[in-house]
Specification:
Number of strands of chain B: 0
Structural class of chain A: mainly beta
CATH topology of the largest domain in chain B: Serine Threonine Protein Phosphatase 5, Tetratricopeptide repeat
CATH architecture of the largest domain in chain A: Beta Barrel
CATH architecture of the largest domain in chain B: Alpha Horseshoe
Oligomer: heterodimer
CATH class of the largest domain in chain B: Mainly Alpha
Strand content of chain B: under 5%
CATH superfamily of the largest domain in chain A: TonB-dependent receptor, beta-barrel domain
Helix content of chain A: under 10%
Number of helices of chain A: 6
Shape of chain B: globular
CATH topology of the largest domain in chain A: Maltoporin, Chain A
Largest sheet of chain B: none
Largest sheet of chain A: 22 strands, antiparallel, barrel
């Protein structure tokens, strides 16, 4: 009995108290020790965590065969079977890194991504855009403070890396926006039609953009609209320039929302206080209304947005070919834009994005030469014959786009799809001796495929191809795109991009010749970026080759060509100075081209060699106010006068020069008195801004008289621009928003 | 101790010893059975002691892993995952400057470090939540999530408030709904107000009643073994700081 009990206890004691030491080391594929790997003897409490040398050690009283598992959030789980019998066991292991969206590189060559995207490299959200001094909540104006964009003040659009404004296209939820800006007046830039607050994400690509987009030689602005609003709300805005209001309703279950807005802009009061150089005989007046609805589907969302604009204006400026005549220019514009998008998770790693869009833009433009008492004048010879005209034009664009995405292993994915555009552009041109009616129709179709290939977290490739066909020119093209990113250190990466980009000739060129070919640009981009703790620094170098640009003389042909090369620096820092966010951009650009009626390859008049911007934002909590400043500098741009030389039978440069350097200091302030007042039913924002505070003379170029003897600088319509406004909202407690902006 | 071992002992003994052996076996089995729940409790108690004395990131990572191993082995207990998540939130705070402006641990990319950590914490709390049966437990779990989201938000409130700030607020509100007498919920609410400038409705005056409530509820709280019990001392400190 005794013996047995002793035996039994011995057995138990041996069983319980035989300890086995398990130890070892964990390395990654490069042979570096991995700290923080959790080692577990499965289904027991025993285990350990690797130290900074990758070593671990623990003892266990378990016996027999067990599974030893190795887990860490950044590495694939691994395990090995061990037999515990009292002898020390050493298990060394090499773990493989997991594909992880947070650690992985992203291909960023050529693009500035902004928005609430976790991976966004450079964030310019809607509030950033609105608080960029000088932007006055215009997306394009804010993007101009980023490297790559020119400071062009006499034409709308983004002039990127030696490209014209037409070489940059805007896309909303995947589909092209045909008329993103208000119809232009010669020598005056107009604003964009879309408010930054409509969008949650913005990608500003200054080159090398994805094969999902086309028809932009230089640059793409890719805008992603917001999904569901946070809450139901009503808003109003009051200023000497604009009054407006709107409502946004969110259903109780948050699956459906709708909203309407209306804004009325009239510049009569403003122009009476702030004198403008042109004589506005028809004061600019803008009506715009928009409506939207959004429906959440199971695993997706359907969004519809529509906006209608009606505006008119008329202005007189001195005629350059005379001393006492004036040109009276007028516009009446109607624009209706519709966008329906459907984003849907199809399961099994499949996703779908569908976009439908219809827009129609109607311009009624006229110009009339008038004498000192504003009586109409007309002559049947040059230069006057082309100065009196009346154009009625219409641009309709219907589009459908479908993109499918399939997630592959890790972070890799493939995307493919197609799009179809139908454009209809009738134009009626009347002057004293002619009456033309042109009608252009184009059926444009594109197919595209793109793959994101992650070899490891540190190296990624993006391969894409786009095929396009346009019926008006009856030509097809194939545009390959390739880019890659490689991680070179903590938070640092190198990206490279190459791609071919095609764009149809412009409508006013196709009027003369529909057998023109696509214009073509080839991009080569190298980028280095470091992103550490709220500080981003990047440097990007590029070379862009232009082929088949449209020449307008001697006939409309594709004999044009050119290049652009340069480098750009960007620094954004939210960290160094408390409550101060600033960014600095610098662009160096060397570009020449021969296109349109250029007599030879020349540096174009829309390209400055050096451009720099400094944007600073400071929020003063005590005052519940923010102050913002932007300083922009650009070296002078070349200007030319091309005249037809009858003896040589071609265009020659009759005069040329360089404008003075461009400087602009802009200020804005916002005051939020109801900030933090919990019970405040109305949230108030007071905003004021002043552009070109120092009143520095800004010369955008020169206009020449017909005989080339008289030249006039192209200047802004007033040296400074002022804005004051009050924005009210009810329903949403925006104070939370602002509080946490400034913690 | 397994039954098969007992059987082996049985086979190797003669019948005269049977009675005694059965007795011994019964005792052994009871010890073994008793030790199964005792093992959990004693392991948790030991781990909690380690948790209380943990200072460095390595200590906390190690204790978080230990809680997780206990949870994984037990399969029915929510508390190990709760504590594992709480230990990880403590590592998260180390990446942010303390009240003296000193940051204990530096990282090259704060946002990806904290986002990854929050992912781990929420995954643990998902497991805890699946095992928790009562509202009080679910309330505690939501507070861990609140801290994880708060850490994600304060990296860059301007861009992150709309996502993580909202998630943190929702988690805290829900935690208070599930257990209106949870002192830790008031402590966290108070801390959030304390860190918010007065101009925005925060500050000492706004935070004070929250800490008072936290202290009052904390003192009244019955301490149950292994259950969350932290916060009273912190609330008292913060209340003192509000004076």
């Amino acid at each position: 009995m005794k013996n047995i009990l002793i035996t039994a206890f011995l057995l138990i004691s041996t069983y319980s108290f035989t300890q086995t030491t398990v130890q070892g080391n964990v390395k990654d594929k490069k042979g570096n020790p991995v700290a923080g790997v959790s080692i577990t003897l499965k289904d027991t409490y025993d285990g350990a965590v690797t130290d900074s040398s990758g070593n671990y050690s623990f003892t266990t009283t378990e016996k027999g065969k067990h599974i030893l598992s190795f887990t860490n959030v950044n590495y694939n789980e691994d395990s090995s079977i061990i037999d515990l019998e009292g002898k020390p066991i050493t298990i060394n292991i090499t773990v493989k890194e997991k594909f992880n969206i947070l650690n992985a590189v992203t291909v960023i060559a050529g693009s500035f991504e902004a928005g609430d995207n976790k991976r966004a490299a450079t964030v310019l959200n809607s509030i950033d855009i609105a608080t960029t001094a000088g932007s006055n909540a215009d997306i394009t104006a804010a993007l101009k403070t980023l490297p790559g964009a020119q400071q062009i003040g006499n034409q709308e659009g983004l002039f990127v890396r030696g490209g014209t404004g037409e070489e940059t296209k805007q896309f909303i939820d995947g589909t092209l926006v045909n008329n993103p800006y208000y119809t232009s007046v010669p020598d005056i830039a107009t604003r964009g039609r879309f408010s930054p607050f409509l969008f949650k994400g913005t990608v500003f690509s200054t080159g090398g953009y994805s094969a999902l987009y086309g028809q932009a030689l230089s640059s793409a602005v890719i805008l992603e609209s917001i999904d569901m609003p946070e809450k139901s709300a009503a808003t109003a805005s009051i200023s000497p320039i604009v009054v407006g209001g709107g409502v946004q309703q969110l259903s109780k279950n948050k699956n459906f929302s709708w909203g309407v807005d209306y804004d009325y802009v009239n510049l009569i009061a403003y122009f009476n206080i702030v004198k403008q150089t042109p004589d506005y005989f028809d004061m600019p007046e803008f009506h715009s209304g928009d409506a939207n609805f959004r429906i959440k589907t199971k695993g997706g969302i359907i969004k519809y947005y529509t906006t209608f604009n009606y505006n008119h204006l008329g202005l007189r400026r001195p005629d350059i070919d005379s001393t006492n005549y004036k040109d009276a220019f007028g516009i009446i514009n109607h624009n209706w834009y519709n966008n329906l998008s459907w984003r849907q998770n199809l399961g099994n790693g499949w996703k779908m994005n569908m976009g439908l869009s219809y827009s129609t833009n109607r311009d009624d433009i006229s110009q009339q030469v008038q004498d000192a008492s504003n009586n109409n004048k007309s002559w049947n010879y040059q230069p006057w014959i082309s100065k009196n005209f009346h154009i009625k034009s219409r641009q309709d664009l219907s589009q459908i786009k479908e993109v499918f995405e399939k997630k592959l292993g890790g972070l890799s994915a493939i995307r493919f799809g197609g799009e179809y555009w139908y454009s209809y552009n009738p134009t009626h041109y009347i002057n004293i001796d002619s009456d033309y009616y042109f009608k252009q129709k184009d059926n444009y179709a594109a197919l595209f495929a793109e793959g994101d290939i992650y070899i490891t977290n540190d190296i990624a490739l993006k391969l894409g191809t786009r095929y396009e066909y346009s019926s008006i020119i009856r030509k097809a093209n194939i545009a390959p795109r390739i880019s890659m990113a490689y991680k070179v250190g903590k938070g640092a990466q190198v990206s490279l991009a190459y791609g071919i980009f095609y764009e149809k000739p412009l409508n006013n060129e196709l009027v003369y010749n529909t057998s023109l070919n696509y214009t073509k640009a080839t991009h080569y981009i190298a980028n280095y970026q470091v992103n550490r703790n709220d500080r981003i620094f990047r440097i990007e170098a590029f070379y862009k080759k232009y082929d088949d640009l449209v020449k307008t003389f001697p006939t409309y042909n594709n004999a044009g060509y050119g290049y652009a090369k340069g480098f750009e620096l960007f620094l954004r820092d939210k960290k160094t100075f408390k409550n101060i966010d600033y960014w600095i951009s610098y662009s160096y650009l060397d570009t020449k081209r021969d296109f349109e009626n250029y007599p030879q390859e020349l540096a174009p008049n829309f390209a400055a060699k050096h451009t720099a911007s400094v944007v600073v934002k400071h929020f003063i909590t005590k005052w519940k106010a923010g102050v913002n400043a932007t300083y922009t500098f650009a070296t002078g741009r070349p200007y030319y006068n091309f005249m037809f030389d009858n003896t040589q039978g071609k265009f020659v440069i009759s005069d040329q020069g360089q404008t003075k350097d461009y400087n602009s200091l802009n200020f804005s302030v916002e005051y939020l008195p109801s900030l933090g007042k919990k019970d405040a039913k109305t949230f108030i924002v007071l905003f004021a801004s002043m552009s070109n505070v120092l009143g520095q003379k800004q010369v955008y170029g020169y206009n020449y008289s017909f005989n080339g003897l008289n030249k006039e600088p192209i200047l802004p319509t007033a040296p400074r621009f002022y804005f004051i406004g009050c924005f009210l909202s009810w329903g949403i407690d925006r104070s939370q928003d602002a509080i946490n902006n400034n913690l | 101790m397994k039954i098969t071992d007992i059987n082996n002992i049985y086979k190797n003994t003669n019948k005269t010893h049977m009675k005694h052996l059965l007795l011994a076996a019964t005792v052994l089995i009871s010890i073994s059975a008793f030790s199964q729940s005792d093992k959990y409790e004693s392991a948790m108690k030991q781990a909690l002691q380690q948790y209380d004395s943990a200072k460095s990131m390595a200590d906390l990572e190690s204790i978080a892993a230990k809680f997780q191993r206990i949870g994984d082995a037990e399969k029915t207990q929510w508390l190990p995952y709760y504590w594992s998540g709480l230990a990880l939130t403590r590592t998260g705070w180390m990446y942010f400057p303390n009240d003296k402006g000193v940051t204990a641990v530096k990282t090259d990319n704060l946002s990806s470090t904290i986002d990854a950590l929050s992912g781990r914490i929420n995954a643990l709390e998902d497991k805890a939540d699946a095992l928790a049966t009562d509202d009080d437990a679910k309330s505690e779990i939501l507070l861990i999530r609140n801290m994880a989201y708060t850490q994600q938000m304060i990296i860059d409130p301007q861009t992150r408030y709309m996502t993580y700030g909202m998630q943190a607020g929702t988690a805290l509100d829900k935690a208070m709904d599930l257990n209106p007498n949870n002192p830790r919920a008031y402590y966290l609410k108070g801390s959030s107000l304390f860190g918010t400038p007065e101009q925005f409705g925060g500050g000492k005056a706004a935070a004070k009643p929250m800490f008072e409530k936290a202290v009052e509820l904390g003192k009244a709280e019955q301490q149950k073994p292994l259950m969350p019990h932290w916060g009273l001392e912190l609330s008292e400190q913060m209340l003192a700081a509000c004076q």
